[in-house]
Amino acid sequence: MADCEPLTYLFVPGNRPERFAKALASGADRIIIDLEDAVAPEGKAAARTAIGEWMADSDTPRERVLIRINDAATPWHADDLTLVNAVRALCVMLPKCEAPHQVAAVLPCSPKNATVLPLIETARGMVALHEIAAAPGVTRLAFGSLDYMADLDIPAGSLALQFAAAQIAIASRAAGIGSPVAGVTPDLDATRVATDMANARTLGFGAKMCIHPSQVAAVRAALAPSAEELVWAQRVLQAWNTSAGGAIQVDGKMVDRPVVLKAERIMAQAARTN
Q1: Residue 150 pLDDT
Q2: Alpha-carbon distance values, 51 to 15, 16, 27, 37, 165 (Å)
Q3: What pTM did the predictor assign?
Q4: What whole-number distance in Å separates Cα of residue 167 and Cα of residue 142?
Q5: I need a surface site. Which of 5, 219, 246, 268 has the fewest CB within 10 A?
Q6: For residue 1, which of 245, 250, 266, 184 has the smallest C-alpha distance?
Q7: Lowest mean pLDDT across 104-108, 109-113, 213-217, 245-249
């Protein structure tokens, strides 16, 4: 996991501009201003206007703001891309992404170094997963797990959901991009949010989308190494740094370069989640 990767992405409805600044102040690493599910069809035009006015403010920390547009099959997609171009959005979340050409269609509307965060939410998206992950402009994938369950008609505990999540993590690693972003937890209970993030972490995910500011702290806590992991990592690194290299033993177990890399990642993750 790269040190610069955000851990938390907080959704805020695009038609609620009074919440934009509050979302930024929530502690979330990134906010996602939503033009898709959070906004009814009759409110999308007004939402685009509100976003455009807010993004025009020179004090807006644009590097922390994503815009989730409507997907390419909807009648609002073209107008959303016009907004993206007008505000020079630095990152666009692309829902129902099912092909790399959909990513390519977004990039000309954005600044040169802008990125696209594709949401994998359908079986078609899973089939094209590796091509999407390798598409120019993609630095991370996100799993729209709720929509994926609806597309496949599977329950929340389905092994098919875990299989899909693991495939997204594998494709991300194979493409050399960041660790993927886990889907939202509809339940606001902090314990449930933390449990979902911990489970996603075991599948290779390094961040999570949030639907309420109260979920942000729970996600960060779930991603933080335990006290036992920190103590272990410190012992491993201390022993390694004072050794002559090669394999050594710590607590009666062999330590070589892959183990040292794990210890380094634990220490880096602790620094990021404090």
Answers
A1: 97
A2: 8, 9, 21, 16, 32
A3: 0.90
A4: 12
A5: 246
A6: 266
A7: 245-249
